[in-house]
Amino acid sequence: MSQTSIERLKDYLAQLPPKSQALLMREFERAAERGEDATVANFVLEELRKIVRGSDDSVRPRAEDPARHLFHPLEPFLVDGSSALRSGQIRRTSLLPVWQWLEREGAADAVRAFEAALADETGSASETERAVRRLQTAAAGAILKITADDSGTDKQRALARIGAPSVAEDLALIGAVLNAREALDTLNGRLPSFVRVLGDSQISSLMGALDVPSLQTPLVLPFALSLVMQRLSAAWQIIRLAIRIAGSDDEVRVAATPYGVAVTLAIDELSHIAASLRADIRSGHFENVSEHLKAVHDGVRGLRTELDIRSDSNWGRQLAAIRVNISNGLQSEIDSVPGRVRRLLRQRPDKDISPSARLDAAEVEETAALIDFVAVCRTYASELAINEVTLRTYSDLQHYVEQTTEALVESLRVGEGSVRSYRQQQVKAAIRFCDVLFGHDYSSLMSRAAENALTAERKSSRAG
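Above: the chain sequence. Below: its structure as tokens.
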């Protein structure tokens, strides 16, 4: 779609009545779940969600949608897309089929009663809240009944009627969160808004907040720890809770406690960041590379430093796999940078340069971003197993760019008019690379040298 078409669509969606926006969202969610026109459905859904969340009228469609009331406690744990889940997460796409099942047969009476209460315009906010809690209790009970069924084939058939296998995987988790909603809400209210460093005092406070029976079950604890992770400046620090509970940094003792799931959460989060990093590199988007590299580097180092993880254990193999995957992805990209720089700055003979020859400004900027990427990698190279290739490449880049820039500047003094424009573009690109490699002072110096070379050449031409 063109930018104009997108803007028109946004305006149209924003002008719809709140009820129409809510209805349209439900229909496109169903289309996305069925895989019909997924690209269009996801795009429209995203725009609708922005409008609904950002407008003053957003309360109305949310309030009038009973499913949103029911699933509100799940909001902190919902994830979009089809990427692999870690513990403490639920697919957003699972909510619609679960709601349809509850509406159809799982808790049909409770859903109808809630919809009637919601339609009653004389009801107060407190009455609506009580009705929501009754619906959530009924839904949790219905989910527990079907997931606890041990009838084998009948259970599988019942789950298949609800939705795809991914929905069946999420069903028990949805029920567990709904059942523990009050404890999770209380925990969320007691957590600090931001924790830069998870120290002893914060750990003690958190352990007290987590010491609630309904939060200690195998299904709910990952969600409670996920809430804590969301407040940490560095997610990997969640392992300190597990180490405190175990009273040891030995991975065997840590894994033997219920809080061993905290280590799994930290490793899964690192794996997710590493996947995002690789995707950004492959697509040429380097805006978040520095942040992702730092997060993975600090996380791997933190886990390896604070926890005695054996290389042949499950956690050890997972960490090793993260390092290898990142190393392979980074190394291939790092190896490609010198070739791109040489292709742009290579001094071709004058006869090989046509009067219309030009450097692609976008390619120059992309190459500069790649040089900066190598510099960032150098900072985190040792922990990510790319130390040798990064240091070698960065040194080669410095040596080549420094020598080539000086040679290009000198060529401005003697170059013929027909190729001087191209040489100037090369000098400009070289100075841009110098700014990344050596800093602003050096690039300014070379820029002045280039200006002086052009001035001297013009004076020489007039004298002749």
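The first strand starts at residue 78 and ends at 79.
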